[in-house]
Write a structure and sequence with these properties.
alpha/beta; seven-stranded mixed sheet; 14 helices; 14 strands; disordered N terminus
């Protein structure tokens, strides 16, 4: 393994943190062709949907690339030259192809980064491949992008088939055990936008449902840019779907939840497949009804830093640079992906397409060493084989990522992988419809909280609700005024581990702390 493969990918974070503290966000400074560029600069294209219905996620994705470029410039640049990002705005495939030609011709970029949307990426990469220009895809997930035999297209993020597989695996590996139901008895339905990504994810979901022996009731597709999903909701209601696997854009998600509210119905669980399901703005727009929704997506910011080193530093840089909290894990995915590509170009020693390809295919980065928790190992098609989506759940207005632990404990940032059942899996609150599994009761004095144990011989130590402090009965009585002529009784403390599904011991009471507590927040 090369020296690059062994060293951690955190070298520039300290420099970038200092840079971000000194430099405010330079709106538009990295984009466009206006102004004379610095002599010797390395011009790289940034092709994203900066306008239209996808502008929010397009800009959020670009912010990750921009942050990685600023970090590289603070460390001395790429190939000894400062990076200049030249923006290309595309909302339709034809426009993406035209912008790719402009970036290659007029702007004379050495490579193009993008793109978030699969239809845009598919069109743009056809143009760049004919010219032999390296194209680094950081966020579009359609399998087709890397299955056309192109030599100079490289993707750092997971594929749609990965998303489809994991969304289905959630049902038998996570939900069925929580609900104490046989997986084959749960009634599944697929709902998706009739576009490139939606079709790819739905195809993968159908194949995985069949492979896992699950029950699929129906597959419903709706046109892109739909303005009403009430008919789809009524169909789901008529077939009594219990779990809905949905792939759609942010606007589609709002339409789905509005349709369920108007119909007075919702399934036991909605499982999203990335896109708008990871967007904070989506959660805010839908409100409390979005609470408990599951999503298989790029790595989110509420994740255990032990398996995603550097995520906290990235969030701090983001806050200082843009003056707000990150809106979605797309910025993190683009940031980590861009760093991998920059390192490969640096090792290539130039911008020759064949040397860049050789450097990308030689990348060997272990999982758990990047801010997304992904690694890097590219196959001949240019697909990163060490990138996979995470399962997250919306709780308290935030998306919490989860992953299996060998010694399970209740932690706020424990991720869960739906496909790895060989490791003990912490069970978490599942909200929605009539299936609240692990109810979390409002915090108040002497409240008891029942917690399910993971399906393993290892049982987690019971933890108090956030904002509560555990005190023994003896400590509680000692804090009360002492009555004249009486002796405080000594409480018996049990040292045994709590039973499966047991509540806290009778000798424990809860004392309310002054800070506010959200009823669905996780124990820390």
């Amino acid at each position: 393994m090369s020296d690059f493969a062994r060293r951690p990918l955190l070298g520039g974070l300290a420099v970038a943190t200092a840079l971000a503290a000194l430099l405010p966000r330079r709106a538009g400074a990295q984009g466009g062709a206006q102004g004379n560029g610095q002599a010797g600069e390395l011009r790289l294209g940034a092709l994203y949907p900066f306008s239209g219905s996808l502008a929010l996620l397009g800009d959020e994705s670009f912010r990750g690339l921009e942050t990685a470029a600023e970090e590289r410039n603070a460390a001395g640049g790429l190939l000894g030259r400062p990076i200049r990002l030249v923006k290309g705005d595309a909302t339709e495939p034809d426009q993406a192809a035209a912008e790719a030609r402009r970036l290659m011709g007029t702007e004379r970029v050495a490579a193009i980064f993008g793109t978030y949307d699969s239809a845009l990426a598919s069109a743009a990469t056809r143009v760049t491949e004919l010219q032999g220009l390296p194209y680094f895809e950081l966020g579009a997930i359609s399998d087709r992008i890397t299955e056309r035999g192109f030599r100079y297209v490289f993707r750092t993020c997971p594929r749609a088939s990965d998303f489809g597989r994991e969304t289905v695996n959630v049902v038998p590996d996570v939900l069925a055990p929580l609900w104490n139901l046989p997986p084959a008895g749960l009634r599944l339905a697929i709902l998706h936008e009739d576009a490139l990504v939606g079709q790819s994810v739905a195809n993968s979901q159908e194949a995985q449902i069949k492979a896992r022996g699950l029950l699929q009731l129906d597959r419903l597709a709706y046109p892109a840019r739909s303005v009403d999903l009430s008919a789809a909701v009524q169909r789901l209601r008529s077939i009594a779907a219990e779990v809905v696997l949905h792939t759609g854009q942010p606007g589609d998600i709002a339409l789905l939840y509005r349709g369920m509210r108007e119909a007075g119905w919702r399934p036991r669980m909605v499982i999203g497949s990335g896109g708008g399901y990871s967007l904070v703005d989506t959660a805010r727009a839908i409100g409390p009804a979005f609470e408990g929704t599951l999503d298989v997506d790029f790595t989110q910011f509420e994740v255990n830093e032990r398996i995603a080193p550097g995520v906290r530093q990235f969030v701090e840089i983001y806050r200082r640079t843009y003056g707000s909290e990150p809106r979605s894990g797309h910025s993190l995915a683009n940031y980590a992906g861009a760093r991998l590509c920059f390192d490969a170009v640096q090792r290539a020693g130039g911008t020759d397409k064949d040397r860049i390809r050789a450097a990308m295919l030689a990348s060997d980065v272990a999982e758990g060493t990047t801010p997304t928790g992904w690694g890097a190992r590219f196959d001949e098609t240019g697909q990163n084989q060490r990138a996979r989506p995470f399962l997250m759940q919306w709780q308290g207005g935030a998306g919490w990522s989860r992953w299996p632990r060998r010694r399970p404990r209740w932690r706020r940032c424990d991720p869960v992988s739906a496909s790895r059942a060989d490791t003990a899996l912490p069970r978490f609150a599942v909200i929605g419809g009539d299936c609240t599994a692990t109810p979390w009761r409002p915090a108040r004095a002497a409240t008891r909280h029942a917690t399910l144990s993971p399906p393993s011989q290892h049982r987690p130590a019971m933890q108090p609700e956030p904002g509560l402090r555990m005190r023994s009965r003896r400590q509680e009585m000692a804090s009360q005024p002492r009555r004249h002529g009486t002796i405080m009784p000594r409480a018996r403390q049990s040292q045994r581990a709590p039973r499966r599904g047991a509540i806290r011991g009778k000798n424990d009471v809860a004392e309310i702390a002054p800070q506010p507590v959200h009823p669905w927040a996780r124990p820390s």
